[in-house]
Amino acid sequence: MKNLYFSLILLFTAIMAYAQNKPWRAGEMELKVHFNTSQDAKVLGSLNLNTDIYQQYAYAYVVPSELDIIREKGFNFEILKPDLNTWSASFGEAMVPQGYYTFTEIKNIADSLASVYPSICKKIIIGQSASFQELAVLKISDNVNDDENEPEILFDGGIHGDEVGSSQNIIMFARDICRDYGTDEAITNLINNREIWLYYCVNPWGRDNMSRYNSNGIDVNRDFGYMWGYEGGSMSPFSQPESKTLRNLQLDNQFVVYTNYHSGTEIISYPWSNRVTIAPDKAAFNSMAQVYSLSSGYTTLPYGQGALVMYLIQGSTKDFNYGCLGSVAWSIEISTDKQPAGNLIRHYYEVNKPAMLSLIEHSGYGIQGTITDAITGLPVAAAIFEGNNYPSYTDPAVGDFHRYLIPDTYTLKVVANGYEPKTITGVTVYNQQCTTVDIQLQPISCQYAYRTITSHIPNFDGYQPGDEGYSAACTGPPDQVSYSIGKGGYVVVDMLDTIYDTSGPDVIVYEGDYSPEGYSIYAGTTPDGPWINLGSGSGTASFNMGTYSVQQARYFKIVDDNNGSANVNDAGFEFDAIASLHPAIPDTVGHLAGVLYDGISGLPIQSGLIASGDSTCITDIDGHYYLTLPYGENIVYAVAENFGPDFDTLTLLPAQLSNHDFHLYPNVGIVHSSSEQEAALWPNPSSGLVHISFKTGLPQHISVKLVDNLGKVITVIADSDFPAGTNTLCLNPDDVNRKILPGFYTLIIDGSGYHKCLKMIISN
Ligand SMILES: [Zn+2]
């Protein structure tokens, strides 16, 4: 009873907290600010208000005290919605303009698509919003339950809940392509050859309440970790369930293209939004944006760098998906009105639909390939740098990577924990094609930062020239290319695999120049902490997790000591690399065990031989065998007296036990000795030279023939008289006349009154 009472109180508190949240701040209004000069946007932006700033005008979301600031600055503005809470309430129970789906209706369509088209459409619940609503994404692809070697592409909508067209478009698109699979050839091809992810509503509470914010009053599109900066009410990077959920979707999948839909103008806005410095992949962004723009139904749909065609913002989803994960990432603003009239819903959908299909097609152009372990052939989690650009990543389940690049010749660098880095030069990409580069990596013992998750430079001035945001410089091995974390700034890196505390120092942080600067290092098991301080360092220094009772860590946060000047190039600590001092040593062997059976009777065969290379095992009374072999592919032979041999190609995983049973079938074509004399053959398998010992000495004249598995005589090894008392023969089948191919053979030994068959394996 006590527990129930407690739960009721909790539930009541949760409902109260939820009910108290109004969609907008008290007295918040929507303004349209018109710019008289090009300087106006910069001034408005510097006020740090909630705004969407375009080139000619801005939408501003302000409370009365903020309105006073705008008035004081002399802006030319009109008040579009004098009280946003009243305006939201005017939509009644549905809370969306007439003709639009509610979040529940969108969710119901998603559920019905997943149930009607289960072979191509899967709904995956990926999280829960701050308002406890389901966050889910539709994956549309053939073999939808498998992770295939296919380019992945993500569209999301509704991050700003009051921009109602985007979620609407995405769910209509999902419905159309599911329906047209199998009848529309182009759509069928795309579903068969791509993995299409449709995240139909990033911020359900925002849609349910006609609000820009989530239920905590935070602008989710300012809450992302790459070059994050206290905007939109966000007090720390990835502070909201909505942003963590989208981030995890981006980290877990490798999107070639990521589209974050909005409205308020009509434009494609690609990275950077946090700074005016040009992104190294600008040419690829322009090329892909042109594809969308030209295949859309817009009369014109301009595109450009967010910081230039719109305004500087920090903490956007697109800058994260490009800056940390290397995707072509952007926001697309699909209508000037944030809530176009219901009779325009179909219009905006139809102008965007062909562009979405084109984008999905083009996500398969550029480069692709698989990155695998050179020994096992298993997929590798790896970063792919094109030159020194922002890296993209493989899908660790399949090892495939896909990156959109414009036609040119490129140098690829592949970096992975546990492997030697590899550079591939002269990779040529052709127009509207995809160049395949499959790469094998050699295992070595090493572990560095795999990717960055969060970066923050206090009071970052995006108008400063130079690139202060190259956080990827601190991933991979030390190379004197470093990321300046900014005065008082920080960065969070992901080591991919957990580091465990062992005796002595566990990690080493490398500074990339020769003037040591101070910093602190924190360890965490999640990208969001909690963070445990491992002390501070100056320049390159190592740290012992055990000193601070930290048993394991996967994420590290490096925080600048806040000394020195912020207004210089490369302010703050020059973070070159972080390495585990006890990286896991790659396991080089695998283990194989099983039973040797008589394929007819099903009984185990005792004293059979299981062999591969130099490893052999004689089966015990229950037919069991056990072998330790190099990991990767091994050809394993099974032989037993009176049975035909067998062999299989088996792939062993490092340090793992694999099971494999062999089934042998009794010989029918070979006549066995009736003599009491016994013979033994060694080594077996052999790469050539073999010895045959006879228990009672040889007959004077014997012939030895090597016969293959089909009974064909391959060669006559011996046909001669031997001195009396000889009981061992040394034979080299290779000496006779030709190289014998690896495989199973029978040595047939005949002498006066003597006939013996011996199974023999010739290995490489
Ligand atoms: Zn928006």
Structural commentary:
This protein is α+β, with helices and mostly antiparallel strands and 764 residues long. It folds into six domains: 20-89, Metallocarboxypeptidase-like (Alpha-Beta Plaits, 2-Layer Sandwich), CATH 3.30.70.340; 117-362, Zn peptidases (Aminopeptidase, 3-Layer(aba) Sandwich), CATH 3.40.630.10; 366-441, Carboxypeptidase-like, regulatory domain (Immunoglobulin-like); 451-580, Jelly Rolls, CATH 2.60.120; 589-664, Carboxypeptidase-like, regulatory domain (Immunoglobulin-like); 679-762, Immunoglobulin-like (Sandwich), CATH 2.60.40. It is 19% helix and 34% strand. The strands form ten sheets. It has an eight-stranded mixed sheet with strand order 5-6-8-7-9-12-10-11, with helices on both faces. A five-stranded antiparallel sheet has the order 21-23-28-25-26, with no helix packed on it. The model is unreliable at 1-20 and 668-677 (pLDDT under 50). It binds zinc ion (ZN). The site of zinc ion (ZN) has 5 residues, from loops.
